[in-house]
Each structure stands twice: as structure tokens, then as C-alpha cells.
Amino acid sequence: MSIHKILFVTSEAHPLIKTGGLADVSGSLPAALKALRRDIRIIMPAYKAAKNAIGRYTRKAELTVPGFPDTITLLEGYLPGTRITVWLVESPRHFDREGGPYVDSSGQDWPDNAERFTVFCRAVEKIALNQAGIDWQPDIVHCNDWQCGLVPALLAPASHRPATVFTIHNLAYQGLFSWSDFEALHLPPELWSMHAMEFYNQLSFIKGGIIFADMISTVSPQYAKEICTPEFGCGLEDLLSQRSEYLVGILNGADYSQWNPARDSYLTANYNPFTVENKKTNKAQLQKIFNLPHDQNIPLIGLVGRLVEQKGFDLLLAILPQLVQRNVQVAILGSGDKSLEQRLELAMLDYPDHVSAHIGYNEKLAHEIEGGADMFLMPSRYEPCGLNQIYSLRYGTLPIVRHTGGLANTVIDASDKNIADGTASGIVFKSATPESLLHAIDRAQALYAQPKKWKKLVFNAMQQDFGWRRSARQYLELYRSADRLAPKHD
Ligand code: ADP
Ligand code: GLC
After folding, report:
1. Which of 134, 215, 372, 409 is positioned for an S-S bond with 286, CB 3.0–4.6 A?
2. CATH fold of the domain at 276-464
3. Which 3 state secondary structure label does DSSP give 240?
């Protein structure tokens, strides 16, 4: 059967609501699938911020779901700037509140997260089974991350069900809840089993996706291999290895309509591979914003990201004393872990001419860092795909990355051989240690000091194409595989 109707299930989508790369993917992969002439609808919770951002919407349907008294309204609108239909699952008690999608304004998980995402998944189940009164049944339900993990589990026993795909964007976030939470959710009791969603005496949403989806994917080929090992498997490596026949890695794409230095309206100066010297204007502007001395000759390293252990910011903090002696500048944008935020603030006081950080979330500044920095650092301990290194390539901001997950699949190290054959696009280092990181930055600085070589690397980086087209085709292939595996009842 050809796959035409796709229900794309996600808990965030740019520009409606975003905490990380999942939103970038959910905001751009559907467009690439639509360009391949598929009928795709995004479904996500009606967070207050998402409702405000979508602006105009209509009431599409009303439904109830098992175990909850609330009337759920399905709101219909478009992803801003596109003709992609978005359905928002409105249950005011669960989603209409200030704060983030998963945490309150003080950074604590919402205490009712299990219930919130159960209600969401139950609504998706009804739509998937064409029981929501909207006369549209998808051929494929594509679920993303733990928040949607219950959907494949709920659909598995149904007859006349669509095929299911579950994409892991980050295995470390699993949606774990207690037995008493499980009891309160009115879910089928058989889901509390080690062969279903029970995981060391907890309810694991992500296990629902991994066990019950017809096909599983993750966001890079390298991470697909890594998660089958104890180092990266977060306790799920055996299960993933058992299902490895049904697991594929598909690299994320970049949305070059949003991340293109030639047209980026956040930049002071636009540029392309032939006018890359305009980047200097952005560098000067960035030094101004970050209160760093204005100097075109000193290499400026940018970092943007969630301040969490995954991203390896602590490795950078560990080498700052040596780094400042090497005469580089570091501009950081991030928010997250309070102790990392404090350590960055202290580093700014210690090294005001070399280190500057903006704590918070700031879309414009993220673009300005890509446009103005010379290098972009991602010393991640693990990285399912990573998007900023892909953006950095396009912005000619040479990525310095650790050889892990999607970083390993997207950046080619500037070894002598790779420089000679014209494939090099950044600096790649192996171990997650301060010494390795420092050595990588030394290599980058040595290359930076050779303008001809550096220019060539920048030019090559900017030519790399990680647009969505190829990956979208791979998703279609994945949908076909899932469809072949889903039980047929007709
Ligand atoms: P992850 O999803 O693990 O956070 P990715 O590299 O896939 O990592 O995606 C991160 C996305 O979030 C990028 O678009 C990045 O620019 C953005 N981002 C992360 N932190 C911030 C921040 N503090 N301000 C603005 N954008 C941010
Ligand atoms: C996750 C991962 C990141 C990936 C993003 C989108 O948040 O940490 O590596 O790029 O999802 O798939």
C-alpha cells in the first residue's frame, strides 16, 4: 500500500513551542514530507504558548478518552508560514498553563506529567483509529520521543490500525513514573509487565514506543549503533539490540529556509561562500553584544545549547584557565542546569576579556552566534544528531565536535589527508576529556592561523548539504517498512 496520510505526533514544534532540536525537526520534516506530496498533519498538546503562537484556529472535534472526565477539544490551525495542518489537543486542566511543556517556571517537572501525556496519547489513539469523528484515518502514525511512547502501545492490539513508527531523539529522557501514577492512569493493566512498559518497577513511556512500534528510528546512523551498547543504551540496550532488525538511523535535516546566512534576517551582514568576508561585520557585532574586546584576529568560539551534562559544557569549564592563555574568545548562549549557569557566570568574572555568557533562551542570539563566530564548539558526551553543527557548517563557522552520534556522521575532520582531498569540514576529537578538547581547540587555532587553509575549509563546510529531502525519502521508506509489518485485518 502506498503511504499517503501521515499523523506526525510530537510534543513540540518550532515556531509554536521549542525546548530543543525536536522542535526544529517537527517544524521542518513535515514540510519535506508534504513536498513529497503526502497528506501530513501534526498533532501536539495545546500548550498555552502554542495556542498563542498559532493565532487563528478552529474547533475541529470534541472527544473524551478512557479514564478522564474532561472534554477534549481538537483545535485546527496551520504551522505559521506554511500550509501544514496542526491539530492541538486541548485539555485546559493539563496544558493551558504558564511555564514550559515539561517543567514549571522554577524548572521542576510538572507533577502531573504522566497524566498530561496519557491524555494526549489517548486523544491520538482515537484519531488514529478514526474514532474522533473527523473522518480522516492516517496510514501511518509517526511518534516522537517518550511523550508519545504510549501511542504505539495503545494501538498495538487494535484491529484496523495504522502502522506505527517511533523515533528516538534522545534515549536518556524516558518518561519514568511510579506504580501509583500507573494505577491512576486507567491504562490496560497488561501494560505493567517487563514485556511491555514496566521498567525496573517504574512505568516507562519510552518502552511503549520501543516495544510496540512497528518500526523504530533514531536521528543518526551512528546513534542507532551506539544505543545498542551499554555505554549509550541507558539500560535499554538489550531491548534495542533485540529489535535492531526494526531499528534504523536517519539523519536529521536542516531547514535552510530558517538557517541560511545569505538570507538570515537576524544577521547584521548576510553572506554566501563567495562573500564570506562579510562575516567580519557579524563578528564585530557579536563581540559588542557579548562585551568582548573588538579584535578581528582573535578566534571567536561560539556555543549554544541546553546546559546539561550531555552537552559537555563542564569540559570547556575545565580548560578555561589554559584556553585564555591561548588568546581565544568564547561566547556562550544557554540555559538549564543551575550549577552550570552559576559556573559560567563566575567564569565571566574571572576572564572578562575572554569568556562571555548569556544565560537564557534567545533565538536571535543563536543565529547571531552562528553568523559571527569563527568556530562552533560541541563537546557532547553523546549527541543523537545535533543540529547546531549542521547550521554551523552552512554558516562557515567551523564546528569542533566530539566523535559521537550525529556529530560523527556530519563533520569530517580536518586531518592532513581530508584537507588534501577536499572533504574536511571541521575538527573532530575522540575522547570526552579536557585534554582532548584542548588539543582539538589547539588544532583549530593552528588552522585559523593559516588563512588560506582556513578559507578553503570554510568554503567546503558551506557547500555541505544536509537539507531534508534525502532524509524525508528515507522516512517514506521507513513508513513503507512499518506498513509491511503492521497486521492486516482486511
Ligand atoms: P538538543 O535537541 O539536544 O537540545 P540540537 O542541537 O538538536 O540539541 O538542537 C538544539 C536547538 O535548540 C537548536 O536549534 C539550537 O539553536 C536551539 N537552542 C538551544 N539552546 C538555545 C538557547 N539557549 N537559545 C536559543 N536557541 C537554543
Ligand atoms: C535531541 C538530541 C539532539 C537531536 C534532537 C533532534 O534533543 O539531543 O541530538 O538533534 O533531539 O532530533
Report:
1. 372
2. Rossmann fold (3.40.50)
3. helix
What are the helix (H) ranges across 398-467?
405-410, 416-420, 434-448, 451-463
Residue nearest to ligand 2 atom 11, measured at CA = 169
At residue 343, does pLDDT exceed 80? yes
Output the pTM of the full model.
0.97
| Nearest Cα residue to atom 4 of ligand 1 | 20
Is there a contact between 328 and 300 (Cβ–Cβ < 8 Å)?
Answer: yes
Q: Among the bound ligands, name the one nearest to the CA of residue 219.
A: 2
Between CA 85 and CA 91 the distance in angstroms is 19
What fold, for 5-253+469-485? Answer: Rossmann fold (3.40.50)
Q: Which atom of ligand 2 is nearest to the CA of 22?
A: 6
CA of 336 to the centre of ligand 1 (A): 11
Over the stretch 68-106, which tens digit does the pLDDT of each residue have? 999 999 999 999 999 999 999 999 999 999 999 999 988
The residue whose grid cell reads 496510514 is 139
- Contact between 127 and 134 under an 8 Å Cβ cutoff? The reply is yes
